[in-house]
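Section 3.1 - Work completed
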Amino acid sequence: MHQITGILRQGYAAVSRALPRGGTLPAEDWERRHRALVWSTWACLPVLSVYSVAEGYPAWHTGAHLAAIVPLATLAGAPRLGRKARTAAVSVALLTACALLIHMSGGMIEMHFSFFVVIVVLTIYEDWTVFLLAIAFVLLHDGVMGTIEPHDVYNRPDAWEHPWKWAIIHSLFVTLAGAAGVMAWRLNENVRLRMHNAQRELEQISLTDSLTGLANRRRLLADLAAVLEERRPSLLMLLDLNGFKDYNDSYGHIVGDSLLERLGGQLRDAVGPEATAYRLGGDEFCVIAPSPGEERRLEYELFVAAALSEVGDAFTVTSSYGSVLLPDEAEATTDALRIADQRMYAEKNGTRASAGRQSSDVLVQVLTERVPELGEHGDDVARLATAVGERMGLAGEDLEQLTHAAQLHDVGKIAIPDAIIGKPAALDESEWEFMRQHTVIGQRIISAAPALARVGEYVRASHERWDGDGYPDGLRGEDIPLAARIVAVCDAYDAMISARPYGIALSHDEALIELARCAGTQFDPAVVAAFCATLQAGDYSGSGSSSPGQEPVTLAKPRRL
């Protein structure tokens, strides 16, 4: 039984695919075809009048014949009626004209062929209603009327005796005639569908950058005009790559195109579905996004700009940007693009800080807003770590990355519940297990900005131990990045000398004794030595700020940071 059902369903599906859908004719095409058929309906009146007179019918009889067509033709031309009603009116009117032609001819068999002609003509509506009406009309006319007045419908004795038999035969002929129209109808639908798809593809191509798949300049101008016309609060960003020309010259255009394609994908993913990313040509990109608001504007801009960055062993590609709030800062397309372009080149010429620095500043501000003490603690640790890093020979980008890592080493704590962060007593083991996730969370937050990827690695490793008993990865010795080892010592010192609600702050000398005692187990001995030398030389003066959520550093006890 299931097999039979499956076969029937497959057959039905195959027939459905083979038949036209119907109702897909564009409104403009339908109106044009309908007008032609309405005029054809009115044209039937003089033709039938002449034929009626020629057949010897009196004037009143001829008028009675035509009275059935006039109201239908009038309804068909009434624009307030829907398409279905007007289609039905024309169909019934033309079928009625065929029936009158048969009646006037005394049932001449040749006149029945007018049904077939009309059915084929009506297929230009591409509507299944026509066929249902036609078959029903033929059955009623040839069957019911043929039974009541057989001599007016048929001119053959056999048809007089069996009108329903001939009604069914004629209905079959109508169906066959309609099949020819259906085939043409199906072909028209296929051609129209292919043309529609081709037109849509051409429109898409005309609005899309062929290399990255992003929207292009033409689409930008259209979208920007729509945003300004509708006065939708939006952010326009123009972005230009830094370092791409050198990359392109060094590795060739094919590799350069691959990088552009990858960066375009990163930009699309970064802005999300609510915004639109564009490539304007060369190494210029653009974004139109719903306005993030003044308080989140800088954070959003840095996040978007960071998506257009790629760093390798021998190259660095970043981006400069200029932004405009719409419609507040510009109400015309040309003004919006001009202002954004000016601001972009102002940044490109160095009037703004680097993307990495800005990203770091944003995260530090987020951390400070969440827990002000953590922001102050981060500043202290950063100042001390920078001084220690300089003493240990770090410089340039390496020193800058260390400073960022020191400032952001606690950023993961913004995901820790307040009940744990602000607990006025020592945390229990389950709470510490939760707290120890903050370095992993911190790396995940920081790494959202590609320019800070290395900083994220340092933050993740900032609670590893020299002896391998740290977390989260159990790194040992020099497997721990040097920057992370420096942050660990500076963080521990600042925590020890800070006043905490669950412990008494140590003095400067006591904190140094603890660090020296844990050198070689918890801390890198070389870093501890550099740290002590830095403080003795007076290169650093910290505030000793408290650090909520910082593990108490009573290092004589078997506890780890």
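Second construct:
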Amino acid sequence: MPCALLVLAIAAWAGKDFVMPVAQPAKNYPAHDAHIDELVTVGLDPYDQPGKGDIFSVKYTEVGYLPIFVVITNDGDETISLAGMKAQLVTADRTKLSPADEDDLYRRLSHPSQGSRAPLPLPLPPKIKGSVGQRALDEIQNAHFAARAVEPHSTQSGFLFFEVSGISHPLDGAQFYLTGLRNAKGSDLMYFEVPLDKYVHPSANP
């Protein structure tokens, strides 16, 4: 009987679809940066712990990627455009990391042992996606931050994936930068700077 229950549990997990976490207002996350004058806040929730990572079918941390849940809340009366949004994670030793795109993730899942900041051939070889399971493909597409705007008095969210292979403690002393957000007049908002120490050591950051 225990073996039968284990098989059923594994089968149930194998069929589990990805569900995006419910986003709280960005200011509720320990790691956040609020622009009081612009009425926009960016919050971060890294998924670096095994329990949190269980929402994914793919074990991203085991293939060198750190998923970060990015939450943007617009408390103003005008739409904020995200069409030109650019993110960057800067580690304590000043290593600058840009988020992976979907093709980067497909490549890594197809070749998980490939160490990974070496240049990769473009365009994407046709067989790469075919070697990644459909559920993983769907998960990547559904999890990725894809919003193009934040409507007034609303919140948008999604995951960005940063390659951190070879970095033992990527969040300690790291800073997350977000640029390219624009107001309804087309003017850039001030860049957002979120210290990840607020997440790593929340009790030390009142």
